[in-house]
């Protein structure tokens, strides 16, 4: 029997909402505190099938592959699909705000859940299990906000990269903490739907395929597009800070920049709209509190919204933290650069062929392990590295084998010639040594 406890969740985004849902379903009393009065961001996220809650997937789009966009050597535009999984498994594109709203709607119907919006965490005593919140109202803008005190049995911090919960935990316990920035900013754009008649194909509203995650890789940067249920695409530009600053100084060059590095985008988003979106929308670091997990495979909320059994394995979770960050950055590099690499595509093909024709070996691509399997991240990293080492060893063996076979054949067929040659080389080496003396 589970001992009923009081859970306090700080942050009502998808992560906090899902944590609250798990606790509430187990019969605990849950209070959710959120600094914001409402959610104004509405960007798409992608969910792996392993992290989906069927009750939350409202009008999802199955994405079976990445669609890589570029310009060929002849100047023509091209699209190249790269399947996520050789066995046909897919990820799902959903509106992040819609997913969050659906989770909150479920929580609002639960009698053991309470919401407190416009509440800012100002202090926490983890020994006495007390916390203090400022109530942010219109009156508090002109004077000191009213402060309330609450008690809790367990506090869950789901309040972003610059977490107030973590800040107060660091006062209570000795924690090693490091925050790294990757020198990249992101900015949001939109591809508008096509106006069609009601009797036409529903997919006709999409300017590009709704069943793909669209990527314009630029090696050091990228532009991606994810479908929304209204026929539009939520797009994100990931760009190094220096180049972002250069475009901020000269916004008129944005259409030319897109034509050069993201061919075909200006046919989907007019140049004027590109400039307006770039100037209007904020340029944020991926580690900003509003979007800390965007680069984590937009992970699909998977690292936080994964299988429920993870919540029963706190010790195992400790070993996963560093691999989560490593995999997130590796995926970012994969999307912006590796998808163009013949070496990456060859390894992906070899691992998929091993998965199909030699399933007993348990080979899979790293992406499939992360998105569709129920493995610890540390295991994913270890197995991916092992597969890489095996492939390198096999490649080296294939390269060296002709020389080895040739040497053995020569030794078998021409032993006298080898002996004479060896004797001649030895005599020459000895004579050269004496001449130097």
Structural summary, described in words:
With 437 residues, the protein is of the alpha/beta class. The protein has three domains: 6-180 and 290-306, FAD/NAD(P)-binding domain, CATH 3.50.50.60; 184-280, no CATH class; 402-436. 39% of the residues lie in helices and 22% in strands. It is built from 14 helices and 16 strands. The chain has helices at 14-25, 96-108, 164-172, 241-249, 254-261, 265-268, 271-280, 302-305, 314-318, 321-336, 342-357, 366-372, 377-413, 415-436; strands spanning 6-10, 29-34, 44-48, 61-63, 65-71, 77-83, 91-95, 113-117, 119-125, 130-135, 146-151, 154-157, 184-191, 212-217, 222-227, 233-240. The strands form four sheets. It has a six-stranded mixed sheet with strand order 6-5-14-15-16-13. Strands 8-2-1-12 form a four-stranded parallel sheet, with helices on both faces. A three-stranded antiparallel sheet has the order 3-7-4. The chain is extended and about 100 Å long. 31% of the residues are buried. Residues 288-304 and 307-314 have low confidence and may be disordered.
Mean pLDDT: 84
Low-confidence blocks of residues: 288-304, 307-314
Major sheet characteristics: 6 strands, mixed
Query: Percent of residues in helical segments?
Result: 25-40%
How many domains in all?
A: 3
Overall geometry comes to: extended
Radius of gyration: 28 Å
Strand order of the largest sheet: 6-5-14-15-16-13
Spatial gap, N to C terminus: 91 Å
* Helix/sheet category: alpha/beta
InterPro entries: FAD-bd, FAD/NAD-bd_sf
Cofactor: FAD
Biased composition (Basic residues): 294-308
Keywords: FAD, Flavoprotein, Membrane, Monooxygenase, NADP, Oxidoreductase, Transmembrane, Transmembrane helix
């Amino acid at each position: 029997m589970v001992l009923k406890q009081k859970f306090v969740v700080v942050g009502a985004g998808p992560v906090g909402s899902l944590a609250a849902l798990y606790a509430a379903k187990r019969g605990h009393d849950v209070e959710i505190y959120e600094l914001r009065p409402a959610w104004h961001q509405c960007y798409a996220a992608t969910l792996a099938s392993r992290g989906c809650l069927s009750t939350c997937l409202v009008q999802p789009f199955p994405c079976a592959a990445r669609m890589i966009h570029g310009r060929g050597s002849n100047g023509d535009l091209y699209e190249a699909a790269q399947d996520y999984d050789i066995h046909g498994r897919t990820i799902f594109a959903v509106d992040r705000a819609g997913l969050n709203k659906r989770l909150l709607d479920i929580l609002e119907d639960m009698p053991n859940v309470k919401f407190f919006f416009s509440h800012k965490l100002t202090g926490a005593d983890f020994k006495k299990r007390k916390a203090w919140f400022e109530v942010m109202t219109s009156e508090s803008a002109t004077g000191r906000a009213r402060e309330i005190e609450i008690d809790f049995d367990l506090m869950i911090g789901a309040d972003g990269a610059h977490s107030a919960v973590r800040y107060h935990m660091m006062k209570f316990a000795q924690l090693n903490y490091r925050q790294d920035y990757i020198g990249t900013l992101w900015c949001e754009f939109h591809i508008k739907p096509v106006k069609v008649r009601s009797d036409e194909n529903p997919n006709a509203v999409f300017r590009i395929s709704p069943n793909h995650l669209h990527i314009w890789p630029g090696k050091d940067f990228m532009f991606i597009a994810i479908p929304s249920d209204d026929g539009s695409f939520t797009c994100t530009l990931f760009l190094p800070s220096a180049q972002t600053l250069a475009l901020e100084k000269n916004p008129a060059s944005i259409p030319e920049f897109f034509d050069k590095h993201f061919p075909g985008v200006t046919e989907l988003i007019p140049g004027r709209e590109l400039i307006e979106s770039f100037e209007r929308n904020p340029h944020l670091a991926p580690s900003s509190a509003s979007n800390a997990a965007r680069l984590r495979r937009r992970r699909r909320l998977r690292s936080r919204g994964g299988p429920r059994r993870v919540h029963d394995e706190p010790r195992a979770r400790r070993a996963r933290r560093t691999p989560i960050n490593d995999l997130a950055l590796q995926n970012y590099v994969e999307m912006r650069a590796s998808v163009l690499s013949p070496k990456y595509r060859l390894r992906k093909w070899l691992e998929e062929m091993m998965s199909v024709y030699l399933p007993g070996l348990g080979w899979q691509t790293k992406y499939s392990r992360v998105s569709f399997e129920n493995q610890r991240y540390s295991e994913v990293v270890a197995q991916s590295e092992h597969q890489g080492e095996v492939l390198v060893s096999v490649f080296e063996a294939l390269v060296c084998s002709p020389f080895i076979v040739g040497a053995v054949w020569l030794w078998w067929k021409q032993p006298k010639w080898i002996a004479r040659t060896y004797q001649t080389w030895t005599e020459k080496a000895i004579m050269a040594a004496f001449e130097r003396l």
